TrEMBL record, chain A:
SMART domains: AP3B1_C, B2-adapt-app_C. The lineage of its organism: Eukaryota, Metazoa, Chordata, Craniata, Vertebrata. Residues 640-776 form the AP-3 complex subunit beta C-terminal domain. Belongs to the adaptor complexes large subunit family. This is AP-3 complex subunit beta. It comes from Malurus cyaneus samueli. It is found in: Cytoplasmic vesicle, Clathrin-coated vesicle membrane; Golgi apparatus. Subunit of non-clathrin- and clathrin-associated adaptor protein complex 3 (AP-3) that plays a role in protein sorting in the late-Golgi/trans-Golgi network (TGN) and/or endosomes. The AP complexes mediate both the recruitment of clathrin to membranes and the recognition of sorting signals within the cytosolic tails of transmembrane cargo molecules. AP-3 appears to be involved in the sorting of a subset of transmembrane proteins targeted to lysosomes and lysosome-related organelles. It is a peripheral membrane protein. Residues 800-910 form the Beta-adaptin appendage C-terminal subdomain domain.
TrEMBL record, chain B:
SUPFAM superfamilies: Second domain of Mu2 adaptin subunit (ap50) of ap2 adaptor, SNARE-like. This is Adaptor related protein complex 3 subunit mu 1. Belongs to the adaptor complexes medium subunit family. InterPro entries: Adaptor_comp_med_subunit, AP2_Mu_C_sf, AP_mu_sigma_su, Clathrin_mu, Clathrin_mu_CS, Longin-like_dom_sf, MHD. Residues 191-432 form the MHD domain. The keyword Protein transport applies. Keywords: Cytoplasmic vesicle, Golgi apparatus, Membrane, Protein transport, Transport. It holds the Pfam family Clat_adaptor_s.
Amino acid sequence: MVYPLNEDLKQMLESSKDSAKLDAMKRIVGLFPAVVKNVIKKLVYVYLMRYAEEQQDLALLSISTFQRALKDPNQLIRASALRVLSSIRVPIIVPIMMLAIKEASSDLSPYVRKNAAHAIQKLFSLDPEQKEMLIEVIEKLLKDRSTLVAGSVVMAFEEVCPDRIDLIHKNYRKLCNLLVDVEEWGQVVIIHMLTRYARTQFISPWKVDEVVDEYNESNFYESDEEQKEKDQKMKTTYTMDPDHRLLLRNTKPLLQSRNAAVVMAVAQLYWHLAPKSEAGIVSKSLVRLLRSNREVQYIVLQNIATMSIQRKGMFEPYLKSFYVRSTDPTMIKTLKLEILTNLANEANISTLLREFQTYVKSQDKQFAAATIQAIGRCATNITEVTDTCLNGLVCLLSNRDEIVVAESVVVIKKLLQTQPAHHGEIIKHMAKLLDNITVPVARASILWLIGEYCERVPKIAPDVLRKTAKSFTNEDDLVKLQILNLGAKLYLTNSKQTKLLTQYVLNLGKYDQSYDIRDRTRFIRQLIVPNEKSGALSKYAKKIFLAQKPAPLLESPFKDRDHFQLGTLSHTLNSRATGYLELSDWPEVAPDPSVRNVDVTESAKEWTGILGKPKKEKPTEKFYSESEEEEDESASTSSSGKCLESNLYFHCLENCILRTVWYIKIKKKIANEARTLFNLISVPTKTHELLHRMSGKGLAAHYHFSRQPGIFGDHMVPVQVTVTNTTDQKIENIHIGEKKLPPGMTMHEFNPIGNHILACEVAIMVQGIDFCDSTQTASFQLCTKDDHFSVNIQPPVGELLLPVTMSEKDFKKEQGMLTGMNETSATIVVAPQNSTRLVIVERVVKAANLGVVPSGQDNIHRFAAKTVHSGSLMLVTVELKESSTAQLVINTEKTVIGSVLLQELKPVLSQG
Amino acid sequence: MLTTFLSCPFSLSLKMIHSLFLINCSGDIFLEKHWKSVVSQSVCDYFFEAQEKAIDVENVPPVISTPHHYLISIYRDKIFFVSVIQTEVPPLFVIEFLHRVADTFQDYFGECSETAIKDNVVIVYELLEEMLDNGFPLATESNILKELIKPPTILRSVVNSITGSSNVGDTLPTGQLSNIPWRRAGVKYTNNEAYFDVIEEIDAIIDKSGSTVFAEIQGVIDSCIKLSGMPDLSLSFMNPRLLDDVSFHPCIRFKRWESERVLSFIPPDGNFRLISYRVSSQNLVAIPVYVKHMISFKENSSSGRFDVTVGPKQNMGKTVEGVVMTVHMPKAVLNMNLTATQGSYTFDPVTKVLSWDVGKITPQKLPNLKGIVNLQSGAPKPEENPSLNIQFKIQQLAISGLKVNRLDMYGEKYKPFKGVKYITKAGKFQVRT
């Protein structure tokens, strides 16, 4: 059955008639159900998508098949069905598509969710009316933790709602962290999006550099000390947002990608976002791309050209990589030449000029001409070599190739203009050339030069005019204009000899075919030849014609490209492409950075997403599913253990969180303070039960240590209590009753919840307890309007600490002072999968509230903290040894806490 | 914010690759594929216009702007792959993708030529459909594609035509779903083998006097891995510090490389490029050959002399072989009468390319090519002597001195057969005369 189909397709493809193709299409659609029944037949899909728009009725026949396939137990079939369904561009099925996308976006398989993200774009281009609904789906998918989905959903975001930056905030850190594992195409899209994002959210890291520059310039006006003060002030006020740093750090490894697009994306990110001192790391990778095929070279060289104008230093070490080979295509040659010229400075100019000499002789004359231009630019930019270059160019005037000579003349003209004082000889030489050169631009340039400096060559100038007047009618328009100019200038300076000649030329010009020349002639005549009608202007004729003209600037054609984001199509074309999104300027003041903080409630939502689903698919498929997801699952089960209950509780949490306004106010404050420490704080996900709903008569309570520092005072350990009402009645007036605290221990109560919490609702409260650096239990009563329940909070020793940031040096110094009695140690077994830095840090920091100390050695990991109450230092060292063991050392004055902590940390690294 | 919003009207909001046209050297569009609505072939006229302007194919600009579209093209194996784009997109993204398409054709059909594509047009459409979804790359890993769409073999096409089945794989690809998308599942071999080819290329520009203007070593490690199951390999070097700048296949764990300088990876099945690297230019590069040349054109006469000798230098006791010299002679050259002491030479009077296939260099008798160059009478003497492009090969030597230390395998029980081969070649090796 399929065999004739294949034959048909072949014939169809070879046929040029559309009607033949359509006939075949009809047959395919006829066959459709039979085909779809078995396995997905891609080819049929291809044609269905291609011709659905023209044959809408026929296409609709197939819809129900896809709808059925969307429910298939196999994730690949679900995904393919969605893919094809969303590719059928028939407006009637928009609602069906919308529904399918919504369902697929919460599918268990990340692959199906990825396809849902793709489908969003398709639906959007089919029916933009759906925008709002689609944004909701995008918002949901952005929260997805799968690396498969990330690239596709960001693509959809860029297409549907690139202006909704607010959707990114909460997902920013996750995207940064996932980036390395996303597939390469997704990486490009995400990096470009994050570049735009970062430019709206962080303040410029370049200010510091600029201040230093200013310092050098304004040195004269201010005393040194004042300056230093100011300098220091600026330097200390700028600290890079940790999120900004996170992005730079996580994109750096991608410079090693095999995909040129990824490397370029990272390079542009560093260019637009990194402090100027750091942007240099991208040059090596960009130079590496030059080994690639010609198209990649072309784009990369263009971008390097733009970069090298602004920051020469970046590419100077790679100067020789831009040397031209005779086998390079011309467009590559000219780009390399452009970069070489940009990189030229006093130190390397002599090497470069030697290299340029080879290029000038190239058989590729277009390239030789470009080289002459380049020499001209070097000569103006670097005054030391101006004379050398000029001499070299004059030598080229005797070249046999006319293009070379002409180009030299044009460049010499520009050069002479910058310093005409002592170049009478060269001008004379050029006047002689006029007899042989035929290229109009060159002739025009010579004539202009002679006219401009006619007083320096008083004998030659009139003679040149005589010769050109003879050939006037045969000249190019460009040359004619310059003859007129020459005549006018001579008339004004040396009218005795040239009056008649000029008038002759003007007469010729008057009857020229070109109106431009006729215009010019009339204009010049009015200006220079005094008659009764001529106005006041003719008095100033000399000033007008022989005014000092500013020397032309010899600039790179890439000069004006820097306002486009690098690596974009617009940059390549040097014009705004459709859909180009402008990179905004850095904000003066950074917007609230706490918007990126992800709090527990957010992750709770994610958990419900997973827990709320039916069981996983077949176990075989689990093998291939995303590892993150598996982690998620294990995390959520271990954390609550009571799956159903916490599920309910998280559901409630989501709805009611906003009710406690007080809490939110506090949260903001916390977030701001926590910001500076953000990357040191890892909030433990473990929650402890405070009150079981059975013993609490329907009131359940959990607590966990939120590790948010310093809300209630320095000695308090913050504890977040979550109260859930599991009954179907409201519970009123929750507050803390009688406290039974050990001596010295104090507790900051949460404000009583004056209002009530309704059935199935949740309230969150934060309180602080000063445990006096002991693991003793804090007992108190949790009261409602009618009841009171005794509850206990016992802190794990790891929560009695506050992380401390210190350098490795300081750490060693402190450690040296805390030896002997103050040191406890143990040898532990480390499971092999736990031996990487990342895992160790993650696990240790999860177990105890420790700060990570940067370590110079790969096998030693250091952590530091101080106790909350007394502020004694607590130094933890994990040193990996041979054969998967490790030495765990704790140095502290508080030996009791130290040894308890040691016991608690022991199992952390040995568990699998 | 509002302005960005207004500046992208909905009707144009179509991203990435819209359509693809394949065009041969004589300017025929022999294949077109549209991922969204159909774009008329006439859009290619802008491309042809640019092609005409560019004189030779090498100089056709890769990015062309037309009134309603942008054309981004690559030139591979005498075929232009012209893609139609409607909105802003990183050009390298498209270029890299198009090259990936050409690589895939090469991989499937053994060559990426017009005939191969036409012969396998059904597979080509299937591939293109899988590689892009709505203009955004979907499956570009060869391992996954091969599971989705079987590459053609003679046997399979016979079987297909009898049984009526198609090339579409009847198992569903699972690699796409895993977090190691480059490896297909359920790989089984009776002989488990892992081969690594360390290939180094010397890029150099040598000036007239024989001194090195610029030299650099570019290397790659190409692998052919046929191992069952899910092997986890780690490859270490004796001298990893030599590698200055490295780019990796996505399978390599970057962190391990950063911390231990070990390549640790779960490999794709079959042939793939593991890493490419550059040996830092600070190290002096040993140039294995030298060239003595005497090329001159006499003033006011229609002839010139050509005399070139190639010899070995610093080759560490290995033979330099596969030596080929190509020279683009100046336009004025009509013909060349040369004698080669070794190998044979050809001169194409149309393209003016002289090619001398030398073969192996034996130090006892250095290969020499000399004779008379005939110039167009009356034409001026060429300004510049042509530069000589040289190719060569040295077996069993990595010129940088890079050495593989060991290969370990984890995760599977069997003992694989391991092999490493070294080879040094000339890359862009040019001698100016």
